[in-house]
Amino acid sequence: MGSWNGVLMMGLLTASACSQLLAQEAPRFAVTEGDYVAHDFQFKSGEKLAELRLHYRTLGKPEHDASGRVTNAVLILHGTGGSGAQFLQPQFANELFGTGQLLDTNRYFIILPDGIGHGKSSKPSDGMRAHFAQYDYDDMVAAHHLLVKEGLHVDHLRLIFGTSMGCMHSFVWGETFPDFMDALMPMACLPVQIAGRNRAWRKMTMDAIREDADWQGGEYKEEPKEAMRTAQYLLTIAGSAPILMQKNLPTREAADKYVEEMEKRSTTLDANDLLYQVNASRNYDPSPQLENITVPVMWINSSDDFINPPELGIAEKEVKRLKSGTFILLQNAETHGHGTHTWAVFWKQYLQQLLEKTAR
């Protein structure tokens, strides 16, 4: 998960608060958008796509050392259902990208891509629907590697920062391309097979879509309404932050109104896109090769994360297998559940530590 929680939490703000946040967003940073087209892209399933479009946004400019190697590129990876645009929200960008801040765009070349099946990159709803290739996380990482190296001509990354699904992609990057980056900062995930409650709510979401008669095997003329409403309910619970919701919805009437408004928001989702996005996690499991990650890792979860509950104790066990890994569990009554990964105020001091540790 990624932007789902950001959208849900934005929904808990008052209209005036939302407008104040969004008003801070656009004027501050010069953003360049573009598309890289990977020709005859081969998916792990054996399927091919003649043209795979990978959309991206960049801020700042690349710098090179004497040998021509890029020294200041930072790749920031979004979560399930999200896009690179989510990192332009003020709670992230205004804390990190400004002059003198940790990822000052006068110093760093920031890359914000949309993953396969997301944002403005190639996805089922572009026209192929359920005939789109059954991509997985390995495919998404391989595609972003192509975008970075061939499309943007960046041969090395100063940092990979990933949230939720992007967090999981960070671990895959570290194992697949261990020398391509100086450091990893995965936020809000676990580097193990998705099982237990995390798999259960995902399967419930996929089953709700596939078993809705109106889905018609992905060839629907209108979105399967009941399936998408069920999916929205599950996404809301999975992305929820209990203390924040109790604070913002203190009465029965407020909670009921929120649910009613949430039902309206479900109409913005596409069933095929959502099904593919959730299903892409089906074979994720970097745990057998964690020792192959050689760069420093600053890994952060939050204590109120429904998707990665701390009581599982998985992170504390797995971090010991990293050659240079630090695990931080944020425990703060003001955090935003799973979506804390996009609120930099809660964790930017750890980003500073990582950048200082890996400075050259």
Low-pLDDT stretches: 1-27
Rg from C-alpha positions?
A: 20 Å
Structural class: alpha/beta
- CATH top level assignment: Alpha Beta
User: What kind of assembly state do the chains in view correspond to?
Assistant: single chain
Shape: globular
CATH superfamily: Alpha/Beta hydrolase fold, catalytic domain
Percent strand: 15-25%
Helical content band = 25-40%
CATH topology: Rossmann fold
Q: Please give the largest β-sheet.
A: 8 strands, mixed
Layout of SSEs?
Elements: H1 3-11, H2 15-23, E1 32-42, E2 48-59, E3 73-77, H3 90-96, E4 109-113, H4 137-151, E5 159-163, H5 165-176, E6 184-187, H6 196-210, H7 225-238, H8 242-248, H9 252-265, H10 271-279, E7 297-302, H11 314-318, E8 325-330, H12 348-357
Parallel strand pairs: 3-4, 3-5, 5-6, 6-7, 7-8
Antiparallel strand pairs: 1-2, 2-4
Helix pairs in contact: 4-5, 6-7, 6-10, 7-9
Task: Describe the structure in your own words.
The chain is an alpha/beta fold and 360 residues long. It has a single domain (3-357), classed as Alpha/Beta hydrolase fold, catalytic domain (Rossmann fold, 3-Layer(aba) Sandwich). The protein has 12 helices and 8 strands. Helix 6 (196-210) packs antiparallel against helix 10.
Give the gist of this structure.
With about 350 residues, the protein is α/β, with parallel strands linked by helices. It is built from twelve helices and eight strands.
